[in-house]
Design a protein that fits this description.
Layout: E1 2-6, H1 11-22, E2 26-30, H2 40-50, E3 54-57, H3 65-70, H4 72-92, E4 97-101, H5 130-150, E5 154-159, E6 161-163, H6 176-186, E7 190-194, E8 200-205, H7 206-219, E9 226-228, E10 233-235, H8 236-247, E11 252-256, H9 271-277, H10 285-299
Parallel strand pairs: 1-2, 1-3, 3-4, 4-5, 5-9, 6-8, 7-11
Antiparallel strand pairs: 8-10
Helix pairs in contact: 1-7, 2-4, 4-5, 6-8, 6-10, 8-10
Length: 306
């Protein structure tokens, strides 16, 4: 099958492209440097060049809490426009199946844990990532509307926090796991972490997420969103202790409570994915962290300040 992956050069996208190629598909990996999907002209050129039968829409603009606070307008606009353009191009090109990757950030701030898909509209997202989350949620509405009016077969997946090799380890816009790994490997003395360490998160290893995307593309064709998760909740303070053990960090961890914590708790109910298309995460957190740390140690020179 001829498959287009937007964000094909990114963290999740590069792993998905490898998997699809290994499965024998002809994959067109669209990268940001070649196509600005906030522009209609670029999205048109991408679809005309790719000529896909199936599309995975992974392209997104987002970062950690600091980056979200600095770019609320950009993240709202970019994610909304990219999603709208991919939906419309998929309609025009009569795509066989469109798989859209949403975000767990779309859930309301105080959603009861574990998050169930029916909770998605029960309130407003946590403030620091609300523009991004709302934009992604609007794409879900668009996908459902296009299914109803045009018969576009699209599915919408909500992965929890991802991590793994090739993650974004940038000093100012990385998510929590790569940020912890980078800081603990680079420092032997003291590191400062935002908040008080009390929020909880659930982490999904990137290869497990890829498996969920592939299974959903092959086995699911419903209008309702579906969570992808591992079913294990851990506090940021506990996570920092685990990453310290894996990296060998023995220095001091200082918490800065003047900085925002983000969403208080985050963990999803992935039972719908298991029931509808047989998805189940298989990589334990400690094992996934060890693989990620090993990869980063090999690649660390590429992230050193120039």
């Amino acid at each position: 099958m001829r498959i287009l992956v937007t964000g094909g050069g990114g963290f999740l996208g590069s792993h998905l492209v490898e998997r699809l190629e290994a499965d024998g598909h002809d994959v067109f990996a669209a990268r940001r440097r070649d196509y600005d999907l906030t522009r209609w002209e670029d999205s048109t050129a991408m679809f005309e060049e790719a000529r896909p039968e199936r599309v995975f829409h992974l392209a997104a603009e987002v970062g950690g809490i600091g980056a979200n606070l600095e770019n609320p307008g950009r993240y709202w606009y970019a994610n909304l426009m990219m999603g709208a353009h991919v939906l419309e191009q998929s309609r025009l090109h009569r795509i066989e199946k469109l798989v859209i990757v949403g975000t767990v950030c779309a859930y309301p701030k105080l959603t009861p844990v574990p998050f169930k898909e029916e909770n998605l509209w029960d309130g407003y997202p946590e403030e620091t990532n609300a523009p991004y989350g709302v934009a992604k949620k609007a794409v879900l509405v668009g996908a459902q509307a296009y299914r109803e009016q045009y018969g576009l077969h699209s599915v919408y997946l909500l992965p929890t926090n991802l991590y793994g090799p090739r993650d974004n380890f940038h000093p100012t816009n990385a998510h929590v796991i790569p940020d912890l790994i980078r800081k603990m490997i680079e420092s032997s003395d003291e590191i400062v972490l935002w908040g008080d360490g009390s929020p909880t998160r659930e982490f999904l290893y990137v290869d497990d997420c890829v498996e969920g995307l592939v299974l959903a593309a092959d086995r699911y064709d419903g209008a309702e969103p579906v969570n992808l998760g591992a079913g294990k909740e851990i506090s940021i303070r506990e996570l920092a202790d685990v990453v310290a053990k894996v990296t060998g960090f023995t220095g001091r961890i200082e918490w800065d409570p003047t900085k925002p914590n983000g969403q208080p708790r985050r963990s999803v109910d992935a039972s719908r994915a298991r029931e509808l298309f047989g998805f189940e995460a298989r990589t334990p957190l400690r094992e996934g962290l060890e693989r990620t740390v090993a990869w980063y140690r090999q690649q660390a020179p590429a992230y050193a300040p120039s």
